[in-house]
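Last lecture ended with a question: if I hand you only a sequence, what can you say about the shape of the protein? Today we answer it with a concrete record. The protein is Protein kinase domain-containing protein. Below, first the input exactly as provided, then the predicted structure, then a couple of comments.
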Amino acid sequence: MWKIGAYIAVSGAAFVAFIAAAAGLLLLYWKKKQQIMAKDGDVELQQLSLSVRTISEKKVSFEGSQDTIDGQVIEPIPHKMMIETYTLEEMKKATADFSTSNLIEDSVFHGRLNGKNLAIKCTKTENVSKIEFGLFHDAVHHHPNIIRLFGTCETEGPDSFIVSEYARNGSLKDWLHGGLAMKSQFISSCYCFLTWNQRLRICLDVATALQYMHQIMNPSYLHRNIKSRNIFIDEEFNAKVGNFGMAECAENDTSDQNQVSCSSHSSSWTRGYLAPELLHQCLPSPSTDIFAFGVVLLEILSGQPPVTRGTEKGEGTILLSDKINFILQSENADELRGWMDNVLDENYSFDQAVTLANLARACVEEDSCMRPNAGEIVEKLSRLVEELPAGESFTICESSCKPLVKASGSNM
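The predicted structure:
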């Protein structure tokens, strides 16, 4: 019996020892697991910290870095754009104290400050506060077909200044109705004009800008002041829409909407760009921008202003948007040929001219619901541009210049 008791005691001791060993192993395993988890947690925290720090460093790096396009310094991050504040002394320095030799048109001066070309516009001080500066913290500030706003100069007086990108080749209005190119760029004895290929590409550039404003920006943006005077041409003959973010300021510019005098100054042509619904106090919409764009297309086709005085006694004034309906309804090809800008002579595709004229007529439909949207316009214009011969040089050459004496019959 004592042997049995001894076996039981030994077995019990062995069992207890086994349990203790197993518990020890489990405890050791648990501790090691905790150490591994703690180590992994530290690694994850380190990675997270590194990630946050890397993102932060990239943000600082991007915001602090600068690229150069056409000699102008820009920030590569589209969502971060600082609008500068200039002093009156800087404005005077940039324009040689607002010298008439730097006057571009009306109250707009060409300036140069810190190696950068600027367009400096004198405006009412109250207009500066109406600029939608929030729009310039987005990719739109880098859109290739929209004039960039660099900053402002507010004074205590009635006049302040808006500083924006300088377009070396002036406005579309200069080219279509001014007769002379910018005197700082070309010899004054040369009457220069836009070729057909250049005109088509300019149409597409402006339509692309409108597509961005109407269909890509969120919320969408209405320009409300599309006209040839607010479309600018850079040194590569790319078109850029100006006065972006200044829709509220444009209300003052359209205060003469009921005036239809036919002087050569484009501010008296305002009614020609106004959609019919605006004359009935309806609210602006994307289709009202499209109507104004359609009028610009008609200017590009014909070289005529949006409003003209009737040739016959008692005829009054004629809107370009009304004239195109009469021409296309006649179904007489000679009517359209005779209406085209005579400086083009025969150097254009008549089929393309017909297509563009019909597109323009669709844009100036009296019923706003019948007008195409910007995306549809871009699609149609893209097809026309794709048909153009490749490799055209967009510098002024003999084919787009005539002696100044031949300009006497143009719309000056």
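Comments.
1. Confidence is low (pLDDT under 50) at residues 43-78, 179-189, 252-266, 402-412.
2. Residues 93 and 205 are 33 Å apart (CA to CA).
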